[in-house]
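no rush on this but wanted to send it before i forget. theres a chain ive been looking at and ive put its sequence and its fold in token form underneath. please have a look and point out which stretches look like helix strand or loop to you. thanks a lot i owe you, the record is right below:
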Amino acid sequence: MPRLFTGIEVPPETGLALRAFRGGLPGARWVEPADYHVTLRFIGDVEGGLADEITEALAEIRPCPPLTLVLDALAVFGGEKPHALFARVVPDPTLAELQAEQERILRGLGVAPDTRRFTPHVTLARLNRSARPEGVAAYLAVQPVFSRVSFTAERVALYSARDSVGGGPYVVEAAYPLSEGR
């Protein structure tokens, strides 16, 4: 498991709804709908022994009810140097607590802290250097109104990604149900 991260899977029917936004953006490398997810914690490249420890430690996530996540808008990371188009997840306190708990668990194992602010989202496309702010603005301007999309998350997944590829395909290495009946 070279490159690991935790996240919430996006169900296929939600992926179909998001698929409607594919295309028409120069410089975009579109994420396959089967790889859509909400990243909770990027871990990075780890050795096999630490990967096993992470897999075991994440099983200790406190139970919580299934989460209803709501996607409410398209947005872009990067400002003047856009690098990702995403569907925004409406902030949710339970989701933030789940992310913070994973951060604590991973730090307890010696994993370096994640310095980025947690911004829940579903990445739809990665943008290369040819993606200009003007082109991204034009793309967003012609998109239909984003109808809110919701789905229920019942588990957290530990994903692996191919070494140095990024953007998938991703493999679920372990899954952790959220509810107490696990």
